[in-house]
Structures are given as C-alpha cells and as structure tokens.
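#random but structural
TW: two for the price of one
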Amino acid sequence: MMKRDAEMAMTNGMSSARWHKVQRSGLLPAALVAGMLLTAAVGCNKAPGADVVATVNGKAIMRADLEKGYTALMQSQQQQTAPSQQQADLARLTVVRNLIEAEIVEQRAAKMNLTATNDEVNAKLAAMKAPYSEEQFDEHIKAENLTVDDIRHQIRRSLTLDKLLNKEINSKITVSDGEIAAYYGQHKAEYALPETTYRLAQIEVTGIPSDQAGNLQGSKATNDAEAKKKIQALKARLDSGDDFGALAMNYSERPDNSSSGGDLGFVGESAMQKEDLNVYTAVLKLKPGQITDILPVVDPQSKKQVGYAIYKLVSKESPGQHDLSDPIVQQGIRQQLHNDRSQLLKNAYFEMLRDQAKVVNFFAEQIFKNEAK
C-alpha cells in the first residue's frame, strides 16, 4: 500500500514588532482550517461507497457535504467562465481537505469535552443577527445558499476550535518580565518614534464576497447595499455604547485584525497621510477613545471604493524614545512574544493532530487513479 503525506501549510506568524507598524495574523474558523493541517494519506484503500469521499478515524465525510462546499466555493470566486473538469476536481480536492481537517479538530475537541454547547452557539448566532432584522438576515443567508443550520454548524466549529486552542495552547503560554526586558534591549531603537503615531482600531465592511466558502464573519456583506446597511447598524450600536472591540471581533470583515478587536497597531502620521488622507483628517479630530463617522474604504490599486469603515483612536504617542517603563511598550512586547509563541505551538500542535489521525481520502485516490494513466 502506497502512502503519500502532504506538506504542512504553514500559517503566517507575526514578524518583529515595529512601533509604527504592526503585522497581524488571525485564526481561521474551524470550518476553514485549511493551511493548519493537511490530509494524512493517499493509499490503496477500498471506498465504502460512492456517497463517502473520505474517512477520519473511521468517521465518514459525505459527498453531499463536499458538493455543498464546492458550490459555495464557486459562488464566492465569481468566475466569468465555467471551470474545466480538472479545475473543478482541484477545487473539490481543496474542499475535501478542509472537511477532513475540520473533522480532525472536532474529534480532538470532543475527546477533551470541548465541543461548543448549544447555548454558546445560540448566543453567537444571536450576536450575528443583531445588526439585521429577521427578514434581512434570512434574505442574506438565502442569497448565499445557506440555511440557519449551516450557519449554526459553522459557528459550532469556530467556537470549538477557539476552545481547543485556548485549552491546549493559549493557557500554556507565559511571558516573563525578564523576556520583555530582553526583547526591549534588542529592539530599543524601534521604540524611538520619529513622529507622532496613532494607535487605531477598525471595523471594516466590504461588498466583496469572501474568497473562502462558508466564511460568515458576522454575516458577510456581499454587495454595496448590504455593506452600507451593516456598517450603519454597527455605527448605531457604537453610538449607543456597545464595545468597539467586541463588535470588531464579531462583525468586522477584515480577517487580519478582526480577531484582535480590529487593532491596527501604531500608524505614523506621515504614513497615514499618504495612505488615506480622509482617515487622517478624521482621526485628527478625535481624542483617545473616540470613533470616526463612517468612512469609505478605497482599494489602493484601483482607487475605487470597495466598502466602509469606522475607526477608533486608542491612543496618541508623541515623538521621542519610549522607555520600557511605558505600560504601552510593555503591553506591546508582551503581546508580540505571546503571538510568536502561540503561532509556533499551533503549527506543531496541528502537525501532531494530523500525524495521529487515520485519514483515508477516497476522492483523492479516485482522481489519481483516473488521471495517472
């Protein structure tokens, strides 16, 4: 029996922190943990039936789920022409791999009694629906060929992954004061600010469909009208006192910072002026803790508006050397070291899960058999 292990797709960790520029990384929902794990094997196994495309530790993954995922993937890509048979097979391989990876995570979480409960799922679903009327929400999910049960399933997977990672990884990470001091000593020059810098947070909504099937970050807007309604509803909630970070985590559609409450890190004055003068002008009017009105999001390449955003001024830092005694410096270094360690542990953890699982990908075997003639 021949067996070929696929390579681990490494997720992007955070690079060295810059006081004026922070690069962020996020977690994918459990339904889309592609890039964290890969299918364990391709071998000469006998498929149990046409309706089963793979098994994970004996549990079947059904063709109906594959086709549902494939349809969603094709819709999200909005291709002008129909894919060739080989392109379609390649897309289906990706969907099967994602389903396998999600099943590996779910089985591990279930074994540790960490599967998200119905109450947790219901609370998350209610938060997702909050900016919309019942009719608007139903219309939205119908347009994406999804049902409430589909969304509940996605939510359960995402919450389950969060609980698993918190238990297995985040709870085991500590950053000492000595490590913070050592990091500061090695990177002291990075904390000398040549100009005024602003720490910003952002809630962003776009009318561009997600390029990942099934990704409903706070019920993803798919056109300009939906994006406008969503951002207006979020602005109303902010004006009524809702927490900015919580809303960003639940509803912002920018994947690289939504999981951190929309944190954009520190942005230099000149960089902000160059990148978006409208944002710079709006931020200048704010005091720390205040938010902007709804602002357009413009694609830097095409110069066309692609969505809407609201910004919060978290803090404003004056030029000069910022010492280790500065609480903001300490907090930034602690978060940097925590994120670096978390990324390393996650990569190692998912590699171990993949190695421990018995995976049979019948769909991949069939494609190989048909094509390698």
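TW: number two ↓
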Amino acid sequence: MTAGAPRPEQALRLLGDTIRAFRKQRGLTQRALAARVGLASTYVSAIERGQRNVTIGTLLHIAAALQVPLSTLLQPLEARPDLYALPPPESLQFLL
C-alpha cells in the first residue's frame, strides 16, 4: 500500500472498537447482540476485531440493536479521514 492510501483494515478496526464500546455500554454480550441482529456470535466477534467488512445493511441492524443512529457508529471515523481518503478528483474523471 502506498503512503497516503486509504487503510480499510484500520477503519474496520475503529468501527469494530466503536461497536464493542456501545455493546458493552448497553450490557450486552456478543451472543446477545448477535441474537438481536440475526448473526452468529463468531461473526460479531470478527466485526469487533475489524476482520469483517460488513455491509451497510448489517450496520443498520447493529445500530438498531444498539439503539443508536448509524451515524453514531461511523462518527469516530470522521476524526480519521486518512483511513478512507478518496483519490484526487482528477483521477475520478472516468466516472463522469
């Protein structure tokens, strides 16, 4: 990976840490959160460790189960734009 390139694995770890913090704050085990969301507890564990790139649908279910807006789970990423920075606009010309 080149210098300045996005680091999705670090973003996933930060997201996982955030989910874990809210889960614990609500007194839920991984198994209880998994049951609320309809996932295996091992999958929730992998999300919290940043080892799974979850879909927006899964994140919406997790946010609902934790009773927080989805934006709350993503908020810590706002302080770390280096983890998801987009390429310069001129390199996106092909999308137009």
